[in-house]
Structure formats: C-alpha cells, structure tokens
Amino acid sequence: MDNATTPQASTKNATSLIVAQGNKWHTPFVFLAVASIIMSVTFAGWMAMLNNFVIEQAAFTGAEIGMLQSLREIPGFLAFTAIFVLLVFTEQVFALISLCLLSIGVAITGLFPSIYGLYATTVLMSIGFHYYETLNTSLSLQWFKKDEAAAKLGQLMSIKSAASLLCYGLIWLGFSVFSANYQVMYLFFGLSGLLLTLWLAFAMPKFPMEHAQHKKIILRKRYSLYYLLTFLAGARRQIFVVFAGFLMVEKFGYSVQQITVLYMINHVINFFLAPKIGVWIAKVGERKALTLEYLGLITVFVGYALVESANVAAVLYVIDHLFFAMAIALKTYFQKIADPKDIASSAGVSFSINHIAAVVIPATFGLIWLYDHSLVFYAGAVFAVLSLTASQFVNTSKKMAAL
Question: What number of CA atoms fall less than 13 Å from residue 237's CA on the CB side?
C-alpha cells in the first residue's frame, strides 16, 4: 500500500509528465518570459512616446498629465477584483486576456490625440497592464521555488529590459530614420503585442498549480509590514514614472529621440545587472537589499529637486531606474512569509494597496508641480525615508513567517 496514489495525485503527476515530455520550451519560465516581452514591448512603447505625444499633439500641462496618470492607476487600485475573475478563468488564461487588452489599448492610442481620447485609451490599456502585473506576480511566486525565485525574477527582469531596449531602438529608428508618426508607432507596438499574445495562447500548454488558491480577499496581520512597504513603493514609483520623465521634457527640452536613448541606457544596464541583483538579494537577504535601495532613493529624489543640468538629471534618471530591480526583494520577502494558498489573493490586494497612492499622487502632485516642481521630489525623498525606516523590521526567519 506504500506505493498507492490518490486519483488527484495521479492526475497531477500525469499532467506534469506531459508538460515535461513535451516541447522543451513548454515551461512556466518560458511562458512568463514571452509574456514579459509582450508587456515590455507594448508598455515601453506607450510610455516612451507619451510625454512628447501629449505635449506636442494634445497640449498637456502638468495638470493634464497628472490626471491622465491618476486615471491610469485606477485599474491598479481595483486589482483586488482579480480574485473574483479567477472564479471564472484560471490565472494563466486571465493573464492572456489581460495582455490582449493591454495590446489593443496601446494600438489605438495614437488614433485619439485629444485629452478625453487619451484618457479613454489609457484606461483601456491600463486595465490590461495592471491585471497582467497582478497575475504575473502571483504566477511567478507560485511556479518558482523559494530558493530560486530571486534569481529567476532577476532573469525575467533582464528579459524585460532586452525587450524594452529593442522597443526603444525601433522608436529611435522610426522617428530618426523613417520619419514615422505617433499613430503608426503606437499601432505597430500594439499589434505586435496582440500577435505574440495569440501565439502564446495557442502554443503553450496549461501548467498545473501546486497549491489551490483562495478565491476570496485575504488580509492577514502578519503581512502588515509588506502592505506598508508596498504602499510606500507605489508612492515612490508614481513620482518616478509620472514626474521624472516629465521633468526631462518640460524643463530640459528632451526630444522623443533623446528620451528613447535615455530609456535604452536604463535597460542596457538592467539587462546585465538585473540577474546579478537577483542572485545578490538571495545571498544578502531582503532587509539589506531594501536598505540600500531606500538610501539611494533619498539621494536621487533630493537630486531631482535641486538639479539644474540636463546631463546631471539624466544621470539621476538612470540611477533611479536601476533601483527598480531591487523590487525583487519585496516580492521574495512576501513569498517567504506567505501561506502558499494566499499568493493569488494577496497579489491582488497588495497591488491595490500599491495603487492607493498612485491614484491620488499624480493629480494632486500635478497641481503642486504648477507651483514648484521641486516640492514633488522632496515629497519623494520623504517617502523614501519612511520606507527605509519600515524596511528595518523585515524578517524572513521561519519563526516570523509562522506568526
């Protein structure tokens, strides 16, 4: 009787065997890698051209760009609703649907060069983007083992950087060599993402999940530090995404080609360093990694507030982007303290918490920007100080994880 197996175990083993014996590319990591390429190509293309597009063709000021970014973050705030959609679709299928929405939203962005047109296409794109990011976090933490998660997340970040780098190169060629317009470029990247998503849907098998996930909203006291760090990370991310790039265009007059080159530099660095950062985080631990990140961010945000040189601003922008790789530490911290059955629900909840600040900050700080842009970045430094303080309580020991 020792060799007896349950029907459920037999089914699970058979499914795993089919996947293992199939095409060697039919693995969860490859699925996430291709999905990451789709997300990067579409979103990077949308973001790289955004500031120039809205200023040149829709006459945006800081107030309008702040409102657009606040609208973009509303779907992120509602990411907790993903757990209810999972009552109908599996996480893998829902991820593919999300990538389709993202791609379609990007494809039609250039066709509506007006304030309300951009608000509408941005919300559509954002629904796909934020649901996918929620599911990507959940699937990664479920499919990767704890001892390999940091390294694999670093590899995925490197792949995303390579895809973004290709995207920026195509944008530079499109505008500099072929004199393309925004409508053509947005359509190109959106349709490319859609075609890749369809390929992924038909080429990849359905992968088994080791733990059945809770299909309800989960909030636990022992995750409270993670929730706090996630909230503060959302505030910091918005100041970078919305206002750092806008500073480069509005104050220093960067063209779309120059912004694209700057993005390319960011991703070349991340392509080589992200896998090493993942391995380093696994070695030194999450608390040390987060401490280094937040100390660096305090310096960067103060630098943004004071900078008067376009070249120095560019250096700050590159350093700021590099710290995004440290986000791996926050994910692996949660993986180590979480009940495996909580991951899908908690991914949605934490994404919503991350976007509480994201909904409020762009519009509010957009008005502050009109008065004094340096105040926006001093506020970012304050968020970094709060994050640094909270990160000192990070503990991934088995005793703490069991509390």
Answer: 22
Would the pLDDT of 234 be above 70? yes
pLDDT surpasses 50 at 20: no
Task: Outline where 144-253 has alpha helix (H).
Answer: 146-176, 182-203, 224-238, 245-250
pLDDT digits (tens, 9 = 90+) for 276-311: 999 999 999 999 999 999 999 999 999 999 999 999
Convert the pLDDT of each residue in 112-130 to its tens digit.
Answer: 999 999 999 999 999 999 9
With respect to residue 234, please indicate whether it lies within any of the assigned structural domains.
Answer: yes
Task: Report the C-alpha dihedral over residues 81, 133, 34, 240, rounded to 10 degrees.
Answer: 160
CATH number at residue 154: 1.20.1250.20
* Distance in angstroms (rounded) separating the CA atoms of residues 402 and 396: 10
Alpha-carbon gap, residue 38 to 349, rounded angstroms:
24
Q: Which domain, by its residues, includes 99?
A: 25-401
Alpha helices in 254-355 (DSSP H): 256-284, 286-306, 310-322, 327-337, 343-354
Q: Which helix (H) or strand (E) holds 392?
A: none
Does a structural domain hold residue 260? yes
Contact in structure between 360 and 236 (CB atoms under 8 Å): no
How many Cα atoms within 13 Å fall on the side-chain side of residue 6? 3
**Averaged pLDDT of the chain:** 86
> For residue 358, is it within any domain?
yes
> In 29-60, which positions are buried (b, 16+ CB within 10 angstroms) versus exposed (e)?
bebbbbbbbbbbbbbbbbbbbbbbbbbeebeb
Of 43-47, 53-57, 197-201, 343-347, the one with minimum mean pLDDT is: 343-347
**Which residues are CB-contacts of 342 (< 8 A; sequence separation ≥ 6)?**
213, 214, 218, 220
DSSP codes, 126-158: HHHHHHHHHHHHHHHHHHS-HHHHHHHHHHHHH
Burial class (CB in 10 A: 0-12, 13-18, 19+), 8: exposed
Of 259 and 124, the one with more pLDDT = 124
Rounded to two decimals, what is the model's pTM? Answer: 0.79
Q: How many domains is the chain partitioned into structurally?
A: 1
- The C-alpha atoms of residue 41 and residue 164 are separated, in whole angstroms, by 6
- What is the C-alpha separation between 77 and 307, in angstroms, rounded? 32
Q: 83 versus 193: which is more confidently predicted?
A: 193
In a domain, 5, yes or no: no
